[in-house]
Amino acid sequence: MTSDPLAKLRTAFQRRAARDRAALIKGLAEGDAAQVERIAHGLAGSAGLFGFSDVSEAALAIDEGFATGRGLDADAADRLIARLEALDGSSRNLC
């Protein structure tokens, strides 16, 4: 048994983040700014709750771009994708 009360939720978040990564890549490829914004906004709020501050910060950079009217920052999107990919790799090590 683990002493981490959030372990199961953290693992579920990591699985969701892998799906979000795929949806983010698809949204970017299709030019679907609304989808990119929705995913980034959700990750900005939830990733930090589970201790993934690097993902939260990358998502927040995208979210703030949309909120301030600057639009999508491609470099920020690349950073978020890379951090989600790293997160997906670390989830494989949890089993």
Number of β-strand runs: 0
Rounded to the nearest angstrom, the distance between the terminal CA atoms is 13 Å
CATH class: Mainly Alpha
Provide a count of the helices: 4
Q: Could you characterize the architecture of this molecule?
A:
The protein has 95 residues and is mostly helical. It has a single domain (7-92), classed as Up-down Bundle (Four Helix Bundle (Hemerythrin (Met), subunit A)), CATH 1.20.120. 76% of the residues lie in helices and 0% in strands. It has helices at 7-30, 33-46, 53-67, 74-92. Helix 1 packs antiparallel against helix 4, helix 2 (33-46) crosses helix 3 (53-67) and helix 3 runs antiparallel to helix 4. The longest helix has 24 residues, at 7-30. The relative contact order is 0.16.
List the helices and strands and how they pair.
Blueprint: H1 7-30, H2 33-46, H3 53-67, H4 74-92
Helix pairs in contact: 1-2, 1-4, 2-3, 3-4
In short:
The chain is an all-alpha fold. The protein contains 4 helices and no strands. It has a single domain, classed as Four Helix Bundle (Hemerythrin (Met), subunit A).
Looking at this protein, list some descriptive labels:
95 residues; Four Helix Bundle (Hemerythrin (Met), subunit A); mainly alpha
